[in-house]
Amino acid sequence: MIRTLVADDQEPARWALRLVLDAEPDIEVVDEAVDGAEAVEKARWMSLDVVVLDLRMPRMDGLAALRRITESVTPAPAVVALTTFDVDEYLFGALQAGAAGFVLKDSEPALLVEAVRAASRGQGLIDPQVTRRAIRRFAQIAPRPAPAGLNLLTPRELEVLRHVARGLSNAEIARALTVGEGTVKTHVARVLAKLGLRTRVHMVIYAYEHAILGTS
Predict the structure, then answer these.
(1) Tens digit of pLDDT for each residue in 154-188?
(2) Cβ contacts of residue 91 below 8 Å, gap of 6+?
(3) Calpha distance 78→75 (Å, rounded)
(4) What are the pLDDT digits (tens) for 30-66?
(5) Which among 108, 119, 145, 169 could bridge 78 via Cys, Cβ 3.0 to 4.6 Å?
(6) What is the pTM of this model?
């Protein structure tokens, strides 16, 4: 079972999140938190795999809570951030703070479920709409020189990296490249290993920080 904590200051939102996640046979919502401070406190003493964290909460917002969880909790649960279109500063900060996934509150419930599962596996999932938002934000930042590790990627792996950075799922990348979805998963795993990255979220950050999106 994927032991999950749901953190949101709005009771109807917590109820809806619990309803969606508890309906899955492999996910258990073990507790709830009404703000970031409570989420951090419970993450410290509970055995959790994933925290689903609203980025806008009173007392301690989700971004501050995310940083506390990733920096001070051992072992730290993976964090899936819930966000909306009007929180660019939270989105950018949370990417750098190590969120394992991003899901918009108005996205399909299945996307949240998959994000929780991906986070529990040490992977990441970003809502395609969030990725497009991140693209505009990263476009405002001067790119860093591409590191030497980029030369380790094959042309196909570089192509997969660019597709991930555009927000495509494995299935969408498979259709674009006319290959099997399993092949795409293998390429993603190799990119992560070669570049020393942990999740797809970090692949997006890497691609935009180093301006390697390209035109392919």
Answers:
(1) 999 999 999 988 778 888 899 999 999 999 999 99
(2) 55, 83, 102, 130, 133, 134, 137
(3) 9
(4) 999 999 999 999 999 999 999 999 988 888 888 889 9
(5) 119
(6) 0.71
